[in-house]
Amino acid sequence: MDLFGLQPAAGDLALCEDAMARCGLVLTAEERRQLWEDRLRVLRDTGRLELGEPLLPRLALAFCDSPWAEPETWAETLAELQELFYHTKNRTGLPDEELLRALRRLFDGPAHGSVERVEALLEEGTEWN
Fold this sequence. Notes:
By secondary structure, this protein is mainly α. It has helices at 17-22, 29-46, 55-63, 74-92, 96-108, 115-124.
């Protein structure tokens, strides 16, 4: 899948590979490719464009040291968080860094590492700022 002729920037996730590895989290080449495809799909589905610094490395850095980040499900967790981020961004309009911090607080706190629970908490109107 290609959006406006953009190809995956090989270095996007390489920017944070060392930090992820220190947390025991590694992505395969196939997982990185799939995350890129997921990114393009979510951007299209939410009607968003991503200009400047890509979200995925920032998302990985924001969550890789979570006590709930598991090597077996890391790629799936990133994909789910990425989708939740863009949908929530559309609803709230919060600045990226503020939204990342809020999602992390919910993920580590009341959601106990469940992206589905973070989403449910947001739907319930849980105070998260």
